[in-house]
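Most newcomers find our protein records easier to grasp once they have seen one. A record pairs a protein's sequence with a compact description of its fold. An example says more than a description, so a record of this kind follows:
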Amino acid sequence: MPDLKISQLPLNATPALTDEIPINEAGTSQKTKLKDVLAQEIITGTTAALPAAAHAGRVHFPTDGSYIYRDNGSAWKALGPLYPMEPPPTLGSWTAINQGTATLDDSHGAVSIKIPGSTTTQNFRLLVKTAPATPYSITVFFNVLFNGDLSRNPYGGFVWRNSGSGLFVSHGYYQSTSGSNAYGLNMTSATVFSANKYDVAGHYSHQTGYWFRFRDNGTTRFIDNSVDGYIWNNYSSNTHTDFMTPDQVGFCCNAYTTSAADGQHAGITLYHWKETASAAF
């Protein structure tokens, strides 16, 4: 393709990144490759290394921050999204446990489980995958579909599971009249309850999304929570073999006593899943 002027490009033009275009920089005419222009207009790096604002229209994608920034020529203006996200593995990477009538979906990038209303109190639906080798940390951000009747207690959370026995431990939240209760429990199977680990009423109000970090160093399993994905609080820990020895990790949802008759459902959507080879706090 010959030398280009952006103003002369037709709407359906598809110039190559190596094509040269004429530009005027500080009063001096010169040519540069399209890829070099884009590299200057779309930049990335840490938030602390944000360069001085000078080129209107330039966009900065941070590697460690909560905002995308747009240069207006004199200042950087912050835009959403609020959190850095690592999209979860697609459905093909998960194994469904007790799916039944639950609907699984990853068409919107996130991964979700939706369950029709039920009068059965224990009927967990799970998506699990092989656990990383210890030590590891898994940071997750998910939302639980709560409904209008606060007495029905739909639940969603993270799972540590043993594939041989079917035993699993879950840590998450359920809806109650006092807010979102932080809840941990042991399950003998997807339909058989064993014991509560903790039940903290009103831990959060009915917020849109929950940050968890699950750490396992081969000796101890830790559960951390956060309101922003940056500042963490460790609020529970157990031995690596507590109740069972996990070889799978995942997430789950339980409709509990949500009624199908009034059109209510339960669900969980996983937006962020990041595994790291460290269990350090």
